[in-house]
Amino acid sequence: MSIGDNGSARGSIGSGLVVENLHVAYGGVPAVRGISLEVKAGEAVGLIGPNGAGKSSTLLAIMGAIGRTGRVLVDGRDIAGLPPEKVVRTGVALVPEGRHVFAELTVADNLRLGAVGRRDRSGYAEALEQILTMFPILRDFGHRQAGLLSGGQQQQLAIGRALMSDPDILMLDEPSLGLSPTAVDTVFEALDLIRGAGKAVLVVEQRAEFTIAFCDRTFVLHDGEITLTLKPEDAEKVDVLTKAYFG
Amino acid sequence: MIDRTATSDEVALSAPRGLWYRLGPIWSLISLLAIVYLVTLVNSFLGDSVQVQLQYALVNLIIVVALQIFIGTSGVLSFGHVAFVAVGAWTVGLLTIEPELKRNLLPDLFPFLFDLNAPWFVAVLIGGIVGGLLALVVSPVLMRLNGLQAGIATFALLGVVNQVLTYWSSIGPRSGQSMVGIPDVLNLQTTMLFAMAAIVAAWLFQRTKPSRLLRAAREDGIAAASSGINVVSQRIIVFAVSGIVAGVAGGLFALTNRVVQSSQLNIELTFITLAMLVLGGMLSLSGAVIGTLVFSLVDVLLVRMQNGLEIGNFIVTVPQGARAIVLGLILVGMLLFRPSGITGGREFVWPFRKDRPLPGMPPTNEA
After folding, report:
1. CB A100 to CB B222 under 8 A?
2. Which A residues in the span 103-162 are in contact with B, Cβ-Cβ below 8 Å?
3. CATH architecture, domain A5-246
């Protein structure tokens, strides 16, 4: 798998995602209050926390889909004020919550649309081939309407579509939501490959234990603030943590 | 990871798609053209008054196709398209009325407009360009809006344009008066050809990149933005294209009616054309065509019945004013029981085809 050829070439100083003092508010009500985090190339970082902790808001704010203050640096470049379609072109991709595939388009068209935000048009065929190798089901169902796929297949498609924009930073909002255990395994095996290929992965999840074990670092969010940073080995102590943080 | 061998579609998925794929089954186009042709053919046996009504219906058809190009593709409501119709009608009026007549009837015109004349066909095309330009000028603001905001803002556009056309006598008649003396050049057959051309243009446009991107964004705005689609710029393109079609329709309206007054190109026409689109199904081109024809047919029948329609030995009459009530009831019933319209937002496909394309998506050659 050589998805990250570009990513690792750029994977030197300042590569990856840096968020500094991010604030988001909905109509004056704060949702994210001063989050700072860093995701390096080839690293997976998790965000966990109860509903309303500000996890999804953090991703949407980085993407530029909602208003924010604070600095967001992609490969050392401040992307403040850019709309989502421009943020994509800086090398950030978001797999939105709830498997937002274009249900009425075919799988192939979904993937083609993902390539709209590519910076490098020439790598298109290669990227498509890599994604189809990673998710063979997408090749088999290339001409099927995306809405007819199962939940796990749609999630694979959503990730595949995000990868078509050739991102250095891949963000996922609850990729395991509503999936069967096998489908979750498939998704996280793919994420492992993507990380191994030198991309920065930022994943929001509800499954605390699973996420802590998978990610290089996991931040616990509570009321819009990072209250704890966990390492993979902390996954064993997750019962205690779950009690402490989620009641 | 699941261990599977790739079995099919490998080449098709990665290969660039050919012209035939992008055009899709031509049946969805031919059926619409055939319907318009047959309706016109049947009408030519029915006497002059029906033919005149059909000509108006065909002009409305082009307006509804323009509406469908924008609303059906973007999912954003527009109450403003009649503004493009109006400037198209104004353009054709100014370019086709005899210079001598213009000097007498429209004395306040900018002097250069007196001698500005064009053959009617060219005038209609220029009317389309003016409609498209107006759409292009206002679109950077309007196309950022969604839902109710977009509805109100486009309605405001109609209001502004209508006031300007009503009161600015340098580009038209003095307030309250109408533009008369438009030549009698347009017959039913030519109007039919224009309607068919509008359908072909809309059908082809469905298959272009802006239209495809915008349909995707209509389905899911978040996913579209995350995929790098700039929704606003795609909407601007589509809005301008539909403005061109609406402008052409306006020019044809001027040539059909031969008298143009700003009050004819206002709220009532807006709602009638929107009702036609809703009736047929706003997500498909077939919906625009079917909706317009069905609505017009019912309308004509009701007007006849108000005056007493003879069927054999019976005379069917309905009270005066029943037309508006019945049309309103049909629309309410439609919205209650089949909000996606007669066509359900689907396009016509070959009747023996096994798979049915989903609503809101033009059929392709993919199985």
Report:
1. yes
2. 103-106, 108-109, 111, 113-114, 116-118, 125, 128-129, 132, 134, 136-137, 139-140, 142-143, 145, 147, 158, 161-162
3. 3-Layer(aba) Sandwich (3.40)
pTM: 0.82
What contacts B46, CB < 8 A, 6 or more positions away?
Answer: none
> pLDDT per residue over A8-65, tens digit each?
444 444 578 999 989 998 888 888 898 999 999 999 999 988 888 888 899 999 998 8
- Residue B13 exposure: Cα atoms within 13 Å on the Cβ side: 28
C-beta of residue A164 within 8 angstroms of C-beta of residue A118: yes
Q: Measure CB to CB from residue B13 to each of A83, A142, A189 and give the nearest one.
A: A142
A92 has a chain B CB within 8 A of its CB: no
Neighbours of B114 (CB within 10 A): 16
Domains in chain B and their CATH numbers? 47-337 (1.10.3470)
Q: Do B219 and A103 touch (CB under 8 A)?
A: yes
Are A93 and B5 in contact (CB < 8 Å)? no
Q: What is the mean pLDDT of residues A194-201?
A: 91
Q: How many helices (H) and strands (E) does chain A have?
A: 10, 10
**Model confidence over B14-39: pLDDT tens digits?**
444 556 555 667 888 999 999 999 99
Domain spans of chain A, in order of start: 5-246
Residues of B in contact with A174 (CB under 8 A): none
Residue A144, pLDDT score: 84
Q: How far apart are CA A47 and CA A240, in angstroms?
A: 18
